[in-house]
Amino acid sequence: MTKIITSLISFLVMIMMCTKAPAQAASETTKKYPVPEFINHPEYYGQDENKLVELEKPQTNTKRKKDFATGLLGLVKINTYMTIDNGHSPVRVKKRDTLLFIIRVNPGDDPSAIAELTGLKVEKKERKVLIADQKPFQSSEPAYKKIEFAVQKIQEGVYLLIMTHLASGEYCMATPVGVFAFGIDG
Questions:
Q1: pLDDT per residue of the chain (186 residues) written in tens, 0 to 9
Q2: Antiparallel, parallel or unpaired: β 178-185 and 92-94
Q3: Which of 4, 87, 94, 137 has the fewest CB within 10 Å, making it most exposed?
Q4: Residue-range definition of the domain harbouring residue 17
């Protein structure tokens, strides 16, 4: 008789555990995230504080630089850079294994096709990225390395951009409305 009661209690405990787990999982997926005010303006999501941090929206410049080594042969290679004054973004993020950003897009738009993330090189008090490498007799192709990230839908038109294992340094995210910069410390 005691074996039956012990088995019954164990069975009831397992049922309670199984029914509790989906409820906990549901609360994770229904977490309330803040939503950026503007479309195509990504913002850093401070997970600990559950708040958004606006990214720097710097003035960008385009600079071209000729490579004279190939110029000696009568061929000139032209590198085009996007530059940002000031060697470091005032928006600093603490290094973590996973960084989260939130972007609001027009319904139906793919956020991974709208936002492009790349690292910036710091030189002489400016941040820059090579955006085009024009070789003689060839068409120009994007020269920067796009950093891939995962996307998770929060609600219609609002997405988490999930970036993993980013190194310390300067970064920018380009969208149709401009460039948004931040730095990672740690």
A1: 444 444 434 433 333 334 333 433 333 456 799 999 999 999 999 999 999 999 999 999 999 887 765 545 556 778 889 999 999 999 999 999 999 999 999 999 999 999 999 999 999 899 999 988 766 655 656 667 899 999 999 999 999 999 999 999 999 999 999 999 999 998
A2: parallel
A3: 137
A4: 1-30
CATH code for position 92:
2.60.40
Question: Are 22 and 35 in a shared domain?
Answer: no
Domain count, the chain: 2
- Do 35 and 116 reside in the same domain of the chain? yes
d(CA 152, CA 134): 36
The whole model's pTM is what? 0.76
